[in-house]
Amino acid sequence: MKDTYQSITKPSPEVLFKDRNSKFFGYAFPIKTEEEANTHLEELRAKHHKARHWCYAWQIGKEDFQYRANDDGEPSNSAGMPIYGQIQSFDVTNILIVVVRYFGGVKLGVGGLINAYKTAAQMALESSDILKRTIDEIFIVKFDYPEMNKVMQVIKKNNLNVIDQKLEIDCKIFIAVRKKDADDIYSKFDNTYKVEISKLED
C-alpha cells in the first residue's frame, strides 16, 4: 500500500531558460486548491504583464489526483503537457508549475517549445525543496475522564501524533495515524474498554 506522497514546502526561486531570444521563466508553488493556483497565476500575470504566454500545469491530491494543463495560446500540447510531464517525472503533487514566456522574435517550432517548457519546469523543480510525507488517517478517540490513563498509554506506546484534544468530563483526542498502521491502531482503541474510536471523514 502506497501511503506516502511528495510535495514542495515553499515556492521555488525564479528560474530562467533562454532559447533563440525567447525567455522562459519557471516557477513552482505548493497548493492545495485550484483557487490557490489561480491566485498565483494572477500574481504572475501582473508581475510579467508584458509577457506573451503564462502556461502552467497543476496537480492536487494525495491518492485521487486532479490535474490541469494549459497551453495558454501556444500550439496544442506544446506547453501545458510538457510541464505536467515534469510533475509526473518528479512524482510530486499539491503543486503548480508556471512557465512565463517572453517571445524573442524567432519561432521555435513545436519541438522547440516542448523542450523549452519542459526544461523550465524541470529547472523550477530542481531548485525546489521536495519532501516526502505520509498519507494519514485522522481518528477521534472518545472516552470519559477516568479512562484517560489507558488512552494515554496506547498513544505513548505507539508514538501517536495527537493533533487536537478536548480534555473535560467527556474527552476527545484527535490522532493522525499513517495509513498502513490505521487498522492496527483502530483495533487497539476499539478493544479498549469504555473507549470509542471513529474515523474523521474528509
Automatic annotation (TrEMBL):
Protein name: Impact N-terminal domain-containing protein
Domain Impact N-terminal: 20-125
Organism (species): Christiangramia forsetii
Organism lineage string: Bacteria, Pseudomonadati, Bacteroidota, Flavobacteriia, Flavobacteriales
InterPro entries attached to this UniProt entry: Impact, Impact_N, Impact_N_sf, Ribosomal_Su5_D2-typ_SF
Signal peptide per UniProt: none
Family statement: Belongs to the IMPACT family.
Superkingdom of the source species: Bacteria
